[in-house]
Amino acid sequence: MDLSVASSSLAKTLLPPFSFSLRPNAPKRLRFSRNSAFFLRKPPSISRQNKLAVVTAIQVSTQSENDDFVLEDVPHLTNYLPDLPAYPNPLMKSQAYSIVKKNFVSPEDVVAQNVVIQKESPRGVHFRRAGPREKIYFEPEEVRACIVTCGGLCPGINTVIREIVCGLNIMYGVQDILGIEGGYKGFYSKNTLMLTPKVVNYIHKRGGTFLRTSRGGHDTHKIVDNIEDRGINQVYIIGGDGTHKGASLIYEEVKRRGLQVAVAGIPKTIDNDIAVIDKSFGFDTAVEEAQRAIDAAHVEVESVENGVGIVKLMGRYSGFIAMYATQASRDVDCCLIPESPFYLEGRGGLFEFIEERLKENGHLVIVVAEGAGQEYVAAEGHAAGKKDASGNKLLLDVGPWLSDKIKPSYCGHL
Fold first, then answer.
1. Domain count, the chain
2. Are residues 181 and 90 part of one domain?
3. Residue 271 falls in the annotated catalytic set
């Protein structure tokens, strides 16, 4: 997604053993080759309004198409403000960082999209590694930051708000931090709150979002007008798919106006479905709470003859919550997830498994992620294709549908 983030610039010297060039027809990707070497230098001051990066290169050996290294890069303030001055990171003076041998993330540090690759296969897509850079592009005393939360609720939102505020204030010395209340609508309804470490000290012990939230209400021009009028130069947006589509539009408008405003998105998904990060916030809490529901279902089905318990868990397009909760519980007989198609009837089908399990054990528990089996529900004439206020596809309810399918065949409790 096109978010403007503050990071250090590309290296200006030789980068052995990799080469660097803009990839044709994919301006957001950079291609490297292990068998090439390029000298990189910044060109004279020229506009970079519509370019991801501008470099000149002298190739000294041939590239190997079999050994591609692709960098899926993110936009940076200096893409459209090439003369932006840089400042030493205040963390250089931090006692916590002074004892670390490598204080900062290098511009060359990347994270591979695929951990496992074959010996002769291309090296694949990589992403910039997150973390503090040695140079920053804002003087802390000149920063006016804002934080906004949008979309649905998720465990850990208040913890994220607290850590952003404390990180900006305590680690970087930023004093001016605004909380935008009520989602994107809060930008132009003038709902704001001054945030300090003292204000957010205990919010991580509360559920929901301290700043309140809403879906929709995104007017890009009004939002950026408000950002400009208030002198905000760092925007932290916490949300899911729809929210980040909005964040991308905000960045594009900021870029069009040439504003020195960094737009950073913090992905809010308890589904843990972002492959290039270790774990999305709220995931562990969701798995723990899911186990409570599974335990309750197991207790109930054990108490009746032919008891079948169905526990529907969150997971639009990925089944991580369902899978991890299943593994942690040890009381689940069948786990249905979007990544693994299943069928109902015939040999090896779900109905056959239920019948065999009931004969063997007298009861069973099924965990189903909300995105599983959508094709079956839709095939029976249920309405599909609707979207919520954030533009996300509304899923059909697989839980009651599955329950109705199983009930006529079994006389036990469901």
1. 3
2. no
3. yes
